[in-house]
Amino acid sequence: MTAIETGLQDLKRRHPEWEPWLAVVHEILRETANSQWDTVVPVRTEAQQDKVPLLSGATLALEKSSIRRLLEQVIRTAYRSGTPKMATLEPALHAKLDVFTLFQASLCQDSDRLKEIAADLGADSEAFQAVTALLPVPLLNACNRRWASSKAVSWVEGYCPVCGAWPAFAEVRGIERSRFFRCGRCGGEWPSHCLFCPYCGMNDHQELVSLVPEKSGANSVIDACKRCLGYVKTFTTLQGSPPAKVLLDDLATVDLDVAALEQGYKRPQGAGYSLDVTVTDNGKAWRRFF
Ligand SMILES: [Zn+2]
Ligand SMILES: [Zn+2]
């Protein structure tokens, strides 16, 4: 059994009430292993610019019917789960939805656009955004794989150097205790050279606090910023999680999110960097998607 399947089973056992959501996550993680996505990642030859994620400025030539198939697969899994909010997503299967507009909005974490699309469909906005946020994950994981050597080693921003998302959490690894941020969208990682708030850049130790919830165990803390009230879950680990498992690690530690919220801290909504991405039709059909 893979680390992903073990992680999913563990989550189902601990949170049986999450089953509908975990079914959707499972679909996406299965698709993330499809190497077909690697073939649509544009080739990069130039060095990464300061502050600009690799995805920004990219033109992605995708097959419209394949994106629609992925959307339908995920929406179908969601609405079959039987929860009332997920059931409101059903019209997305029949609507003449512009899948490229939807995919682009998901890629760019454009929540205003996603809310508009949800309203047009009559779908529950929260459920629609949660499900469609997962759509670009297979492509973004492929970008992270293909662009591994393009990432600037000197990257010092708080957002992901590949896709511009805020970190899902931080890892403090090995006996060197080197600190890395991890991205829940592309699975990427980037070093954090000192303790600082990824959201506002605060590095004054007086303004940064570490919260240790009672139930969190010795290996997890919440690093929070008193200036912007943002927080990052931080795990001490021997080695980093596999890219596709970042999403599951994030879900598995929801107790820490609850504890942080109770203390008045939050994760910022939306993107860390406003991406500029063009999605075009490549006019070719992929042989097999699933
Ligand atoms: Zn990323
Ligand atoms: Zn801050």
Helix content: 25-40%
- What value does the average pLDDT take? 93
User: Main β-sheet: number of strands, strand sense, barrel status?
Assistant: 6 strands, mixed
How do the helices and strands follow one another from N- to C-terminus? HHEHHHHHHHEEEEEEHHE
Number of helices: 11
Primary descriptors:
single chain, alpha/beta, FdhE-like fold, 2 domains, 6-stranded mixed beta sheet, two-stranded parallel ribbon, 11 helices
Structure description:
The chain has 290 residues and is an alpha/beta fold. It folds into two domains: 137 residues, no CATH class; 116 residues, Alpha-Beta Complex (FdhE-like fold), CATH 3.90.1670. It has eleven helices and eight strands. Strand 5 and strand 6 form a beta hairpin. The chain is globular and about 55 Å long. The site of one zinc ion has 8 residues, from loops. One zinc ion (ZN) binds next to loops.
Question: Topology, pairings included?
Answer:
Elements: H1 3-14, H2 19-32, E1 59-62, H3 64-80, H4 84-87, H5 91-94, H6 99-107, H7 111-121, H8 125-132, H9 137-146, E2 169-173, E3 178-182, E4 189-191, E5 208-211, E6 220-225, E7 231-237, H10 246-252, H11 254-262, E8 278-281
Parallel strand pairs: 1-8, 2-7
Antiparallel strand pairs: 2-3, 3-4, 5-6, 6-7
Helix pairs in contact: 1-2, 1-10, 2-3, 2-9, 7-8
